[in-house]
Amino acid sequence: MEPQNEQPEPRQNNSRVLLWVALVLVLLGINGVLFYLNTQKKTENEQLTTQVQAKDAKLEAQIKEFEDLKANYERQSQDLQKLGLSNDSLVARIAGINADLLKLRSFKAGSFSLAQQKQFKQRALNLESQLKKKDDEIAALKASNETLYTETTTLKEKQNKLTDTISTIAKTNRELSDKVNVASRLQADNIHVSILTSKNKEKDDDKEEFKAKRVDRLKVTFNLARNDVSPKETKQIYMRILEPDGAALYNLSTGGGTFTVDGQEAFYTQKQDVVFDNTKQPLNFVYAKGGDYKIGQHTVELYEGGALMGKTTFTLK
Questions:
Q1: For the residues of 215-249, what is the DSSP string, one character each?
Q2: Domain match, 134 and 234 both
Q3: Count of C-beta atoms within a 10 Å radius of residue 68
Q4: Is 4 part of any domain?
Q5: Are residues 86 and 206 in the same domain?
Q6: Are residues 96 and 195 in the same domain?
Q7: How many domains does the chain have?
Q8: What's the pLDDT score for residue 84?
Q9: Which of 51, 109, 255, 291 is deepest in the core (most CB within 10 A)?
Q10: What's the domain range around 241?
């Protein structure tokens, strides 16, 4: 009877083997599923990382584009200031770009959505278009200014040349006028001095030396030399008699006064108005001092128009 009780053991062993095999297969299946799920998760994470990096790259590119736009608009603003033009509109655009940059820099990593990318890209395109249009306007203004500058420079050069020409003509005219004035000055020829005594006798000495005590009046005679340049008109002829010490005989009661010689005031002894007729007309002055004359050499000077016409000397002893 004992051998019959030991027969079921092989079946029990087979069941255990099958159970272990099934368990192993289940574990392998679970591991396979987990491996697959992990692989899928890793792939999804890598894709997400790639997408975030792509968004971040586009965000950085967009920020750089707006920074370039800002720099260009600031350059335009400076160009307009140099041209002396108003730039209020550009100031407003620069303020708008600063606001856009502030918003772009506020986005977190990976949060720059496709819609936002399109929105800022379109705004950048609009700003770029306006920038180019303004650049064309500024270029035209600069070209116009350069043309005006060239024309102004040319006009200034012509004006300077004209001014130089006018100055040259004026200088030439002054020189000619000076020459005419010099040429038109009258000259006294044949100046001669004689004395008149108290008895109205005229004494003439070839050496032009007279006794002082015999002199009552002095007589100076001369001719106006021919001058075809000087106009025929009334001339004022001045006579100065200088004593040996250089002082001019001067007395208001005898017709003396002052006049200008070489820009300086000087005393004259007598004067007379003469109508110049260019005929070598003779003239004379008769002067009475009314007192004793000094001994020594005296000088007689004749002037017209403030210029010396001629002079001579005589001696009293």
A1: -SEEEEEEEEPP-SSS-SSEEEEEEEEE-TTSPBP
A2: no
A3: 13
A4: no
A5: no
A6: no
A7: 2
A8: 80
A9: 255
A10: 188-316
Cα 220 to Cα 190: distance, rounded to the nearest angstrom? 10
> Residue 317: which residues within 8 A CB-CB, separation 6 or more?
209, 210, 211, 212, 295
Final residue in a domain of this structure, among 90, 112, 143: 143
**197 and 307 share one domain:** yes
Q: Report pTM.
A: 0.50
- Look up the CATH number of the domain holding residue 223: 2.60.40.1930
Tally of CA atoms within 13 A in the half-sphere of 305 that contains its CB? 14
Any idea how long the chain is? Answer: 317
- Which DSSP string corresponds to the chain? -HHHHTTTHHHHHHHHHHHHHHHHHHHHHHHHHHHHHHHHHHHHHHHHHHHHHHHHHHHHHHHHHHHHHHHHHHHHHHHHHHTT---HHHHHHHHHHHHHHHHHHTPPTT---HHHHHHHHHHHHHHHHHHHHHHHHHHHHHHHHHHHHHHHHHHHHHHHHHHHHHHHHHHHHHHHHHHHHHHT---EEEEEEEEE-TTS-EE--TT-EE-GGG-SEEEEEEEEPP-SSS-SSEEEEEEEEE-TTSPBP--GGGT-EEEEETTEEEEESEEEEEE--SS--EEEEEE--SSPPPSEEEEEEEEETTEEEEEEEEEE-
Same domain, 102 and 197: no
Rounded to whole angstroms, the Cα distance separating 197 from 212 reads: 10
Evaluate whether residue 135 is within a structural domain: yes
157: tokens are: 């050069």
Within-domain flag for 269: yes
Same domain for 192 and 301, yes or no, is: yes
201 and 133 assigned to the same domain: no
pLDDT by 10-residue block (mean), the chain, 317 residues: 54 77 82 76 64 75 90 88 80 89 84 86 89 87 84 87 85 74 87 90 71 91 94 95 95 92 93 96 94 94 95 94
